[in-house]
Design brief:
Distance between the termini of chain A: 61 Å
CATH topology of the largest domain in chain A: FAD/NAD(P)-binding domain
Largest interface: A-B, 31 and 29 residues
CATH architecture of the largest domain in chain B: Roll
CATH superfamily of the largest domain in chain A: FAD/NAD(P)-binding domain
Number of domains of chain B: 2
Oligomer: heterodimer
CATH topology of the largest domain in chain B: CPE0013-like fold
Number of domains of chain A: 3
Shape of chain A: globular
Number of strands of chain A: 27
Number of helices of chain B: 2
Strand order of the largest sheet of chain B: 8-5-6-10-9
Structural class of chain A: alpha/beta
Chain lengths: 417, 124
């Protein structure tokens, strides 16, 4: 590594999307001086410039913004604060002693940092990851790639479309394709409930009379050069296709909106421990990973449904990182938060000191009139009621310092009636 | 008459139960905030949406600029607006908030840019 130009920084933020921008701004406001953002693309804002639909920013700016507008507010603030950033620059490796190797068009750099914020976002799952049988013709896209082609590059992806997966991106693309003149024959969802926000079912599907086929999946892709048709099938409760319940849909395009995976290849290079459930780092309430001084936030930590929550989480990571640079962190205890009945995950996974907490929680199944309880062994510390809980909607619950004062364990679960 | 609608104002997505007769709303239930009341009232008789789409750009760093209606417009105008915008071409540079089309079909809504597009002469 002799060819790398060495440079000392207090904080390096990896990724210039919504998480990286908010983290860097917050770190600077909280006193971090010598910091830099490393961004692989030639623009800031990550995925937001292609998310031209509105509904962003309600939580933070109290008005509905489109993706590009939301991103620009952070970019303007970043520039006002004179926070440096490098575009077209790829972080290659992080060492456990917090050296970050970066390849950029100007030079190869080795940054020695006091703290690192991981904000690399997530990637879309592809056809290969769910093993759809059939031929391998043109016309199979992930929803985000189709969105990029249509909204940024002025390239239409097809005329007769089927979408697999009812996540938000899938539904938003169903509307977008319809507006651009394509016929969306159906959104096919393997689960018995949709995976996106309720408002998108209304404004993307019901508004445009796009059929939503629940408990269905794509079992075969057909076509030689271009997609010619697909076979869909109804599935049973084990999510396997039912014989005799198949049907052919003629189409030239299949969009996949089948989930997002935090992109943690870089995190692994410095030994950050990952959760098999969130597929992101295991963190404490400061969003510090298992490697001291390395923090994670946004979709690289766990996949969010609303960008506002990414920004808010990133602000916390920025604050924690600046505290880590400016003063020794005092760790008083380390309590593992146990995930109980009815939940898929709780984040953070650890608490390290007495402080106010904000927990991000996802349930396993949709449910009405649910209560989520917090326990120290068998003692109920707190319960919070919800009229409706859904796996697609992340739940945020705050725990005051006083509520977790003398606990030795902490378990979160959906209470049985 | 009664109907259930999903509120689209925020990610919460409240299921609103609207009871109405002729041209008046009798009762609205299921909303968690007052924005839901306004939405339910409009949605019952004249549903409106903010349209977001793109418009072609010449000499820009991107070939398209993202745009939206400056306020929600009648759902009936959505495809008519798409047809209109398919013929519109704007020149870079463009700033967020620039008016691309004024007073869209006499609705007092404008089509405004939602992205900054910088000037870049294309070689092709």
């Amino acid at each position: 590594m002799n060819n790398f130009t060495s440079q000392d920084v207090d904080l390096i933020v990896i990724g210039g999307g919504p998480a990286g921008l908010a983290a860097a701004i917050s770190a600077k406001k909280n006193g971090a001086q010598n910091l830099i953002i490393i961004e692989r693309n030639n623009w800031l804002g990550g995925i937001l410039p292609q998310c031209i639909h509105d509904g962003f920013g309600l939580e933070i700016f109290h008005e509905p913004l489109t993706g590009p507008e939301y991103a620009q507010r952070y970019i303007d603030e970043l520039k006002k604060l004179n926070i440096p950033y490098m575009l077209n620059s790829m972080a290659l490796e992080i060492t456990p002693d917090k050296k970050v190797f970066v390849a950029s068009p100007e030079d190869l750099f080795c940054f020695q940092a006091k703290a690192i914020i991981l904000a690399m976002g997530c990637r879309e799952r592809t056809r290969g990851q769910i093993y759809i049988p059939g031929t391998r013709p043109a016309g199979v896209y992930t929803a985000g790639v189709a969105q990029n082609l249509i909204n940024l590059k002025n390239m239409m992806v097809g005329k007769d479309v089927v979408i697999l997966g009812s996540g938000d991106i899938g539904m938003i693309m169903a509307r977008r394709l319809t507006l651009e003149g394509a016929k969306v024959h159906a959104i096919v969802e393997i689960l018995s409930h949709t995976n996106g926000l309720p408002r998108n079912i209304q404004q993307c599907l019901i508004d445009y009379e796009i059929p939503l086929l629940l408990s269905h999946t794509v079992t075969e892709i057909q076509g030689i050069n271009r997609v010619e048709s697909i076979i869909i099938s109804q599935v049973n409760e084990k999510l396997t296709s039912i014989k005799g319940k198949e049907r052919k849909i003629k189409c030239d395009t299949l969009l996949l909106s089948i989930g997002l995976i935090p992109e943690n290849d870089l995190s692994k290079t410095c030994g950050v421990k990952l959760s098999p459930v969130t597929r992101g780092a295991i963190v404490d309430e400061n969003l510090e990973t298992s490697v001291q001084g390395v923090f994670a936030c946004g979709n690289v930590l766990h996949v969010h449904d609303v960008v506002d929550f990414v920004s808010l989480e990133a602000e916390r990571a920025g604050k924690s990182a600046s505290e880590c640079i400016l003063k020794e962190q005092r760790k008083e205890k380390r309590i593992h938060i146990e995930v109980g009945d009815g939940l898929s995950y709780v984040l953070p996974q650890y608490i390290s000191r007495d402080t106010d907490l904000e927990l991000s929680i996802r349930v396993l199944n949709p449910r009405e009139d649910a209560s989520i309880g917090f326990f120290d062994k068998d003692a109920l510390l707190k319960a919070e009621k919800f009229r409706k809980v859904h796996p697609a909607q992340m739940i945020k619950i705050k725990l005051k310092k006083s509520e977790t004062k003398n606990i030795n364990t902490l378990r979160v679960e959906v209470l049985q009636k | 008459m009664k109907k259930e609608i999903i509120c689209i104002v925020c990610p919460m997505g409240c299921h609103l139960n609207v009871e109405y007769a002729q041209k008046t709303v009798l009762s609205i239930g299921g909303n968690r905030c007052k924005l839901g009341l306004e939405y339910a009232e409009k949605e019952s008789f004249n549903p409106e949406r903010t349209l977001t789409t793109t418009v072609k750009v010449t000499n820009g760093h991107l070939p398209l600029v993202s745009v939206r209606t400056s306020k929600p417009v009648s759902k009936k105008l959505i495809f008519k607006t798409m047809a209109l915008l398919s013929k519109v071409m704007v020149e870079a540079p463009i700033l967020i908030g620039d008016k691309i089309v004024e007073n869209l079909f006499d609705t007092k809504a404008n089509i405004i840019a939602t992205k900054n597009i910088s000037f870049k002469k294309r070689s092709t």
